[in-house]
Specification:
19% strand; globular; carboxylic ester hydrolase activity; CE7; AXE1_dom
Length: 331
């Protein structure tokens, strides 16, 4: 893929205005409070996975509206005391998968909570899911972006982002987890959910967001000629009179708006040939990160020749270094 977005020197200075509703904070405060009022304590059941060095719990916690969300909690089998935890969210279409897929963080002495994504986990690329989304929708394009698109109270990603924020509550209450050292991570859709979780919750000490989805959504819809963003274009091609209403709803789930409220130290990554999540949309959110959260330390790794796969194992290595330094107090 050839370069198609802004050149790097312009990306590094790209700070566009992004629509944010006046009631953004009130909307999210009310949404989270309503869901927390319906929440129950998380349940963690030990499971035998055949992994001799990793202990695994099958977790169920309360998400949006008190609805149950599944997750896997994995930790080193020999761990005696509470551990830092990486709370991770999955990419578009993926679920929590199987426990054998999540051994990286336990192998370095850190607990790991792999959170399921409601209504997803049958994308065909692996990572099966176990959490239904019991909500219906008005007319919508296939996929998730236009489910409930005419009202933020009904939009799919409001539910998913509420689940993400409440996953932090659950992680802090789980056995063997050190509640004061929660790190949030994700790539693509998972990156957007991680950014939202950090913007909505003040407990996490760090964020790791890779090739994040749902950033500067209106620009992404104009740039991307393919799904998931093409779901919005296809919807508006039919509903020609709903353009501003659609983008108003999406402004509540735009990760660039959530990023402004981030308070945790952050490691981001971007791929300059990413045709799924354009680099300018990532930079738009990255530059806004922490504006309202005290301007925490942040940095971004750039992969000039990669598409949506981003940095792959090279970025994982950067994350391991970041977490090691963070937990040692050196970041």
């Amino acid at each position: 893929m050839a370069l198609y977005d802004l050149p790097l020197e312009q990306l590094e200075a790209y700070r566009p205005e992004i629509a944010e509703p006046d009631d953004f904070d009130a909307f999210w405060s009310t949404t989270l409070a309503q869901s927390r009022s319906a929440a129950r304590a998380p349940v963690a059941v030990p499971v035998d996975t055949g992994l001799a060095r990793v202990k695994v719990h099958d977790v169920s916690f309360s998400g949006y509206g008190g609805e149950p969300i599944k997750a896997w909690l994995s930790a080193p089998a020999e761990a005696a005391g509470p551990l830092p935890v990486v709370v991770q969210f999955q990419g578009y279409g993926g679920g929590r998968g199987l426990p054998v897929e999540h051994t990286l963080w336990p192998s370095v002495g850190v607990a790991h909570l792999m959170v399921d994504t409601r209504g997803q986990g049958a994308a065909g690329w692996g990572s099966v899911g176990d959490t239904p989304d019991p909500h219906g929708s008005g007319p919508a394009h296939s996929g998730f972006l236009t489910r409930g698109i005419l009202d933020p109270h009904e939009h799919y990603y409001v539910r998913a982002m509420t689940d993400a924020a409440l996953a932090i509550d659950a992680a802090a209450a789980l056995p063997g987890v050190e509640a004061s050292r929660i790190i949030v991570a994700g790539a693509s859709q998972g990156g957007a959910l991680a950014i939202a979780a950090v913007g909505l919750h003040d407990a996490p000490i760090a964020l790791m967001a890779d090739v994040a989805f749902l950033c500067h959504i209106r620009r992404a819809v104009d740039l991307v000629d393919g799904d998931p963003y093409d779901e919005v274009r296809s919807y508006l091609a039919a509903h020609r009179d709903r353009v501003e209403q659609v983008f108003h709803t999406l402004s509540y789930v735009d990760a660039a708006n959530h990023a402004r409220r981030g308070r945790a130290r952050a490691l981001w990554s971007v791929a300059l040939r990413d045709t799924t999540c354009p680099p300018s949309t990532t930079y738009a959110a990255f530059h806004r990160y922490g504006e309202l959260g005290g301007e925490p330390d942040k940095r971004i790794e750039v992969y000039p020749y990669n598409n949506h796969e981003g940095g792959g194992a090279f970025q994982i290595k950067k994350q391991l270094e970041f977490v090691t330094e963070l937990l040692a107090g050196a970041v």
